[in-house]
Amino acid sequence: MPQVIIPSEIPALDGSLRAQAWAFIDKLRRDDTTPGLHIEPMKQAADRRARTGRVNDGWRAVLIKLTGSDDETRYVYLGTYPHDKAIEYARSVIFQRNPRTSGAEVVRVDLVTDLPPTSSSEPSAAPVETAPLPLLQGLGITFEDLVDLGVAPSTAHEALFATDQDRFLEVALTAPSAFQTDALLWLADGRTTGEVRAAYRVQPVQGGTERDTDDDLIGALDHPASRMEFTYLEDDEDLRAAIEGSFARWRVFLHPEQHSYVHAPTSGAFRLSGGAGTGKTVVLLHRARMLHRRDPKARIVLTTFNRTLAATLVANLRQLDREVLTARRPGDPGIHVGTVDAVARHLLSHAADNKLDVGSAARAVLGASRTDVVPATPTSALWAEALRLTGDRLPEELRNTDFLQSEYAYVVLPQKISTRDAYLHGRRQGRGVPLGRARRAALWDVVEAYRRLAATAGTTDYDEKAMLTAVALDEVAATTGRRVADHVLVDEAQDLTPARLLLLRALVTRRADDLFLAEDAHQRIYAPPIVLARYGIHVAGRSRRLRLNYRTTAQNLDYATRALAGHDFVGLEDDAVDDTGLRSARSGPPPSLSRCSTTSEAYETTIDTVRRWLADGVLPETIAVLVRTGNEAATVRRDLERAGVPAQLVGSKDTPGTGRVLVMTMHRSKGMEFRDVVVLDLSSVERALERMPAGDRADGLLRERSLFYVATTRARDRLAVVGIGGSGGLATGTRAGAATPLGQSGLTAAEERAALAREVHDTVGHSLARIALQASALEVASDSPAVREFTAQIRAAARQAGAELQDLLATLRTGADGRTDVSFADLTELLNGLKEQGARITSTVVVEEGHTAGRTLTRTCYRIVQESVTNAIRHAPGFPVDIKLRGAPDSGVTVIVTNPLPDGLVRAPRPHSGITGMVERAESLGGTLSARPSAGYFVVDARLPWAMT
Question: UvrD-like helicase ATP-binding domain: which residues (predicted)?
């Protein structure tokens, strides 16, 4: 049976086509000779291995066929496209080994032409400013370093001259392969070329790649640089996930940056931090499996913040390894997955089995022996009743149940305070609201009332449960040396309270590989900041941070991080968190931002957005609508259902299902991810902060910003933010970029050129004719030989200028080289013609969507590419040529053409008329152009302002 390999990113398909593509690949996996598949090789293909197969009458799958010496056939599936586009793609694609890395990669040899039309009106040129030192050059990275790592020369050149982060990310995210993207991002993050080589096992192919066999390419698929992009389909579930566009498998994919944190032994507690989407949870899953494989009898606890996240961890663990042993109870061999609260509740419920003395622990924590501690306290209601009974002496700003719960959890419980005197002298490090002796005494009255009410009801809250369990476990360990677990792994640690951290510490003996915590201070949305060392978790020297985001697109990440800008965040070691280096390895569309006038309009906009995504063929369960409150979530769910959109409200006890759009609060979305997300932000931040004591408002604002950051980083692909102007929500404070309108002159480009030619002919042409006529008259009338000779020269020059003008006007009327129009898209025809003559060309054009380029600019780019490729073919026949063109209004246009130099051709060519002409064209537009050898390549580098006249 043939094997099928899929890349990490393939074009999405709608519902009906998705099912047909699934059926095609299923048949292909079972028997590639099945009638109806029509697996056909390509004529005039860049790669002899390229194939297409029939999905239906109008669509074909693009494949690379590999047949190894074992006679087993493998197909690399590159997506399903309309018939003509599939043929074009298959002819232009090459599956090869990167000669510098040994990894497999897909290279396009055609030009990307998904471009806007050229503009008919051109604003004046923007001034060219002196650029600062490029990012990579500032880190000591050279062109040779990048090429030796396996970065394509043209990409290397562009990356080397990127002077700001946005420009650099644009280059990195459009690199030819995922490995090249990652390598550039690693280097920009301060990693060395040696670290990149080691992580990806970069080593050149011995003997080159010109004679690569199918066996060579099959072997290359197992290279670390390849595994980022290509995965073998193991079963029907993998196939369905690939075709349906499900990204579940990528939730558990381990990137090389994360590999060392999975397998490296630790000498004690370890802290792994990182921004949203950097793969902290993936590391935990793989590390849990690694520990289990190393010792199948090991008792491993994998824990997180809430039940929804725990259910997601279980699902992802099964996705990663269906054979892994899951433990039903903490303390059993295998991997037990659950919340910290569930672990505490289970251990208290089975106290006798675990030899826990609950009464003794209650005396130490609560000041009185109790064993009825399993039922849960209705926390907010009980604090409110305690306030009503005993809170008269508290000032109004402290008569706040949230503040009281926080003071109890962060001051009273972790210090095991059970008397008024102990509280009056207790430490309150990190608390924002100062409390004098009188206020502490008044507050203690409320604490005692709360404890009495809970004791009467026979309940405890979850912080109390965690603290009781921690104390009881420590007491057992003190006498027996026994702990419940061998290894504890913790997700979302930034929001755990002191009692919960103390419980985690008490679960496992202090030793190598004991406690592994993943956290992100920017996602702290529940709890005030804490310091691990205060609760017995010491990670000094054992703390690392992930910086590459593999989930969120660069566009969404940039938007989300604006909510954090200008504010100071601290981590679990009381360390400042700086995410200026946080980068995404994915690109996508910019966020959609809608500012509505009313709540009704906001709900309607949300529903319309969801409907549009569903119409695109997106699976309902991969779409989420995130709101601030439970009431808002219920309203959205009701309105979606009324609009005919099946929706599920995901609450604290719910597990997300399939076939329905998911609706939940922003808090509930913590730790989750979805393909497309609507963030509906209707609530006022100011009103939320007003309910807090003044001393807590600064941290409250940080948590509100973190909540918005959490919500907007849940999207893998598309993000829509809907807010109400003037509501005070964070969404309304972000500017939405407006697309530049296309030219609306009402004339075609040909009509405009003809009109301009007539105008020039009627003005300049007429003037030149008058000069020639007057010079002729003066020549005849004058008696002076010197005057006659001089006027004859004037007449001849005017006539020559007139002839040249006519040539120019002919070109203007028809376009360059007799074309009816010249645009970036015309480069396709030019390069295709050169390829037919035997040129080896790879090329990419990227122009920012929604913007148009002027005629002069596109004509200049066309001429530069034409001349550069012609020179490359002339001086280095048979060698590959790579063209890259990128353009955007704020950064201008960059054209880079690179080709290897033949042996012996190492000096810069004399500036012949072609190169001189390119330089003059660039300079006439206010730009620059250089053409010179570099590291064995000849590089033409043109930098042009966007707006030209």
Answer: 253-585
